[in-house]
Design a protein that fits this description.
- This protein is mainly alpha-helical.
- It is about 70% helix and about 0% strand.
- Helix 5 packs across helix 13.
- The longest helix has about 35 residues, at about 95-130.
- The chain is globular and about 75 Å long.
């Protein structure tokens, strides 16, 4: 398991970013354009004046619904549901707490959807793509795995940067996740398992991340992002990938040329976490063998389909705790829907996860999901020539292709072009994540309107916590299993990808659609507090880790946790006006 995490941790971006750019550009193109016009109106066009949507709570109850419906600032940019209209037009004022409770519950479930989609469908297909393309572990790690782990953050940033009013949400989430990961997650790893950090990867990653934060600080000061600036972010990430590959090559060349006496290979004496892979073959016994029948029989097509669509392993269910079972109950509807709509290719299996009836069904359902999630379904219902909707054409074409595939293949042997299902699964799961991320951003903005909170504070708290909780649990698990160095390296490698690609690609896509620079509207002092806290946490680690001779102790971890708590208190006090700049 540790070996696969390390391989995956160092691999997922150049090709994936290109694929994601095509996916998200199509997914957000018309949708954003349709809603950008109220924010950037053409001169001479009469329209309703834009008023801060958070002022709705100061109006009379009878005027709130009309204000929400007529004020352009209250319009959601994409998504399937209008949450603000739901709160102020469909719920009476005395049921506002109930509406907020339902929204928060739906928000938590959306985070669950993001986590399940990324972990069980998005990342496996990315891994299969990297295997199919025969990418090295290092290239795959800093590209595909980074993209897989940061998919919720990236898609949330892409959605938020499509509107200057929600750009603060993206910056708050990226900065907030950075502070959270470099303090709480890194500190938790050292508390769970003190270890000696690898010096060269540590210096490389933290210096690159500090440069990225500094560039973002300047971008906020300028208040705008040009095409050159966005390309600079992506170029810096490409340079980071090249640096990782060169460092790995130089390290291996030095090792081959040296005649140092051999040492026992353990996870904690490996020199660089990104170069050396820990073998997990000693614990590779497949306990599923105990439950395999002695005599095999030919399954029918219906039985294969039913087994492939069953998200529950009954043998595993018996062994798990009550907490795992309760969480699994909530996951079952999501997993069933994703199994039905997203194909998954697994190169580690003999049959590469080929299920003929289900995969043929995917040829019909997956393209249908793609057209119904692009631009929140606008592409799917568009009528060709005013007669036939696009989704009908997609269903007809998919059915024809599925019929040919079903009769030209067998249940036992995957077809020669089965690897193409990995790309279809990648595209479909990416659009599922994008759709869920759009709803997350819209809900958070609605909660910000209700509680009169800035987008920045929502980003650095709820959005950052929700998008980072999966990485936190996985890193803590690696630390408990005896691989703290691997988990510690992942803390910095992932957030470098998130901030450089999230800001760079998000702004680049917006600029390519509107042909103008992206305007940023920082939420006052809070965004500067957030940027300063992130920079200070990085400086603290840059100074304190070498002073400890890279031997990270529990005291260091506790200091990081206390730093985050102090930062959170200062951020909230700033949001509520307790800490503010003196007016001159």
């Amino acid at each position: 398991m540790a070996s696969r995490w390390l391989d995956l941790r160092w691999a997922l971006s150049v090709l994936c970013v290109l694929l994601m750019a095509e996916t998200v550009s199509g997914a957000r193109d018309s949708s954003t354009g349709a809603h950008i016009s109220p924010q950037f109106p053409a001169s001479g066009v009469n329209q309703t004046p834009v008023v801060d949507c958070r002022k709705v709570c100061g109006l009379n109850v009878s005027d709130r619904c009309d204000f929400i419906r007529t004020n352009p600032d209250c319009h959601s940019d994409g998504g399937y549901l209008d949450y603000l209209e739901g709160i102020f037009c469909h719920f009476p004022p005395n049921l506002l707490p109930l509406a907020v409770t339902l929204y928060v519950s739906w928000l938590l479930y959306l985070f669950l959807i993001l986590g399940v989609t990324a972990a069980k469908f998005f990342c496996p297909n990315l891994s299969a793509i990297s295997t199919t393309l025969k990418l090295s572990h290092n290239v795959a790690g800093v590209t595909f795995l980074a993209f897989g782990n940061g998919a919720p953050d990236i898609f949330s940033a892409l959605v938020a940067f499509s509107d200057p009013h929600t750009a603060g949400l993206a910056l708050g989430a990226l900065f907030g996740a950075g502070v959270l990961v470099t303090t709480v997650v890194a500190g938790g790893i050292t508390i769970l398992h003190p270890f000696m950090a690898a010096s060269r990867p540590f210096f490389r990653d933290i210096i690159f991340y500090m440069v990225a934060v500094f560039l973002t600080f300047i971008m906020l000061f300028r208040g705008r992002v040009t095409m050159a600036w966005a390309l600079g972010y992506l170029g810096l990430y490409v340079f980071y990938v090249v640096t990782v590959i060169l460092c790995t090559w130089i390290y291996r060349w030095q090792r081959r040329g040296s005649l140092v006496y051999s040492m026992p290979v353990t996870p904690e004496i490996l020199s660089d976490s990104e170069e050396d892979r820990v073998s997990s073959n000693s614990n590779s016994y497949d306990y599923g063998d105990e439950y395999r029948p002695l005599f095999f029989y030919q399954e029918t097509t219906a039985q294969i389909l039913a087994r492939a669509l069953n998200p529950l392993d009954y043998m595993k269910w018996r062994r798990k705790s009550a907490y795992w079972k309760a969480l699994k109950v909530f996951k079952l509807p999501v997993e069933f829907l994703l199994l039905l709509t997203v194909p998954v290719v697994d190169p580690d299996k003999d049959d590469r996860n080929w299920k003929r009836p289900l995969n043929c069904l995917h040829l019909v359902i997956s393209p249908l999901v793609v057209v119904l999630t692009l631009q929140s379904g606008t592409y799917g219902v568009y009528e060709i020539g005013g007669l036939v909707p696009v989704w009908v054409v997609v269903v007809i074409a998919g059915t024809a292709l599925a019929s040919v595939t079903f009769f030209a293949t067998s249940d036992s042997q995957p077809p020669r072009l089965h690897w193409l299902f990995a790309f279809l699964g990648f595209l479909t799961s990416a659009l599922w994540i994008n759709a869920a991320a759009t709803e997350v951003v819209n809900i958070l903005r609605s909660l910000g309107v209700v509680f009169r909170l800035s987008n920045t504070v929502l980003g650095l708290t709820l959005l950052a916590w929700g998008n980072s909780i999966g990485d936190a649990f996985s890193d803590f698990t690696l630390a408990r299993q005896g691989y703290p160095r691997m988990a510690f390296s992942a803390c910095f490698g992932g957030i470098i990808f998130n901030i450089l690609v999230g800001v760079g690609l998000g702004c680049l896509l917006q600029i390519s659609r509107s042909h103008t620079e992206v305007k940023l509207e920082p939420d006052g002092l809070l965004v500067w507090v957030l940027a300063g806290a992130l920079g200070l946490s990085l400086v603290f680690s840059l100074v304190s880790v070498p002073l400890q001779c890279f031997q990270l102790s529990r005291v260091y971890g506790i200091c990081l946790l206390l730093f985050y708590l102090n930062f959170l208190v200062v951020a909230l006090l700033t949001e509520f006006g307790v800490i503010r700049l003196k007016s001159t």
